[in-house]
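Please fill in the sequence for the structure shown.

STRUCTURE ENCODING:
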C-alpha cells in the first residue's frame, strides 16, 4: 500500500492543496490507501482525525466500558475521559466469538474489576445458553454492569458529534474497532447494515452512558493495565 509520502514528485504545497480539494470521508483512502465507504458510511470522519498512539491513561481519568454480547461475537470497548477537554479516549478492546460468558467476564475483569460497564439491554433476555439470562450471568460473574441506553439514532448522532468535533479519540491498537469502523454503513434504504458492528454498538453504549464513568479507587492504583497493555491473545488489546 502506497501513500502520498511515497510520491517524491508531490511537494508539501501540492499535498496540502490536494487534501483541501478532497471530501473528508475520502481523504484517508486517497492519501493513505485506507479503505473508506464514502457516502454510505455512518461516520464519514477520516481516521487521521481521531486515531492516536496508545499512551498510559492517567489514574484520575474516569473510565467506563460498553459491552455488546452475543454467541457469534462479544465485544467490549473501554473509554477514559479527559475532563479538561471533555474528550473520550477509547484505549482497550475485547473481541471474541463463540465463548461462554465466564471467558468474556475474565477478559473484562482483567482490565480492572472496578470499572463499570454499560451492557447491551438485549442481554436481559435469553441468549447464548438456553434457559439462562445473560444479564444475570455477567452480574454473577462479578461485572459491575448496568442497562445501557439503546436509542440507536441518537446514540449514533452522539458518537458522530464527538468524532467530528475532536472529542472522541481511538488508540491505534484497537484493530477490531477500526476494522468495523471502515465498513459501518447504511444500505440504499438508509438502514444500518447489522453485520460486524459489535464494537460499534459497544461504543454507542459507552458514549450514551459516559457520565457514569468513575475514577479508579486508590486501592487499585498501579494494578490496572493501561492503554499500552500487551495484546490479549484471544480478545484483542
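FILLED IN BY: designer on duty
SEQUENCE:
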Amino acid at each position: 500500500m502506497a501513500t502520498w509520502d511515497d510520491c517524491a514528485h508531490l511537494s508539501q504545497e501540492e499535498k496540502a492543496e490536494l487534501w483541501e480539494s478532497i471530501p473528508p470521508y475520502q481523504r484517508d483512502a486517497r492519501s493513505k490507501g485506507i479503505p473508506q465507504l464514502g457516502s454510505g458510511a455512518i461516520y464519514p470522519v477520516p481516521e487521521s482525525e481521531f486515531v492516536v498512539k496508545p499512551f498510559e491513561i492517567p489514574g484520575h481519568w474516569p473510565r467506563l466500558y460498553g459491552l455488546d454480547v452475543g454467541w457469534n461475537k462479544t465485544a467490549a470497548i473501554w473509554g477514559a475521559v479527559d475532563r479538561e477537554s471533555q474528550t473520550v479516549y477509547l484505549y482497550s478492546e475485547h473481541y471474541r466469538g463463540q465463548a461462554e460468558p465466564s471467558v468474556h467476564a475474565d477478559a473484562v475483569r482483567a482490565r480492572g474489576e472496578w470499572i463499570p460497564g454499560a451492557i447491551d439491554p438485549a442481554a436481559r433476555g435469553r441468549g447464548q445458553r438456553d434457559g439462562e439470562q445473560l444479564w444475570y450471568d455477567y452480574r454473577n460473574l462479578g461485572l459491575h454492569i448496568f442497562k445501557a441506553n439503546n436509542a440507536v439514532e441518537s446514540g449514533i448522532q452522539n458518537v458522530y458529534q464527538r468524532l467530528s468535533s475532536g472529542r472522541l479519540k481511538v488508540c491505534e491498537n484497537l484493530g477490531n474497532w477500526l476494522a468495523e469502523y471502515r465498513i459501518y454503513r447504511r444500505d440504499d434504504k438508509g438502514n444500518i447494515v447489522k453485520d460486524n458492528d459489535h464494537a460499534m454498538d459497544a461504543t454507542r453504549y459507552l458514549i450514551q452512558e459516559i457520565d457514569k464513568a468513575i475514577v479508579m479507587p486508590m486501592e487499585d492504583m498501579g494494578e490496572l493495565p493501561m492503554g499500552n497493555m500487551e495484546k490479549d491473545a484471544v480478545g484483542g488489546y
